[in-house]
Write a structure and sequence with these properties.
Elements (H helix, E strand, L loop, with lengths): L4 H5 L4 E7 L4 H17 L3 E7 L4 H6 L7 E6 L2 E7 L4 H11 L5
Parallel strand pairs: 1-2
Antiparallel strand pairs: 1-3, 3-4
Length: 103
């Protein structure tokens, strides 16, 4: 059974959500960066990818107007958002700032 978005963001872990589109060049550039972040942090952070074309209502709910847009949830609360591609060290710094994740 697929978890609902609310179940995912209200989990114990820090959740980084990447709103993307398959046709978006910068989104494709961000994919390996997020994969590397996930490899470094393992279970400390959950990375969720949301295709805006398949999840339009969710994109509207969070007012995603450009892709890629990353949202960071800690204990179910939105604590940070950023549009555009960030480098790995910048994403790690954000995760370190907003969560108990040691990086």
């Amino acid at each position: 059974m697929k978890s609902s978005f609310n179940d995912i963001i209200n989990s114990e872990r820090t959740v980084l959500v990447d709103f993307f589109a398959t046709w978006c060049g910068p989104c494709q550039a961000l994919m390996p960066i997020l994969k590397s972040v996930k490899e470094d942090l393992g279970d400390a952070v959950k990375v969720v990818k949301i295709d805006i074309d398949k999840n339009n209502a969710l994109a509207l709910k969070y007012q995603v107007r450009s892709v890629p847009t990353m949202l960071l949830f800690v204990d179910g609360k939105l604590v940070w958002r950023q549009s555009g591609v960030l480098q790995k060290q910048d994403i790690l710094k954000v995760l370190q700032t907003y969560s108990s994740t040691s990086v």
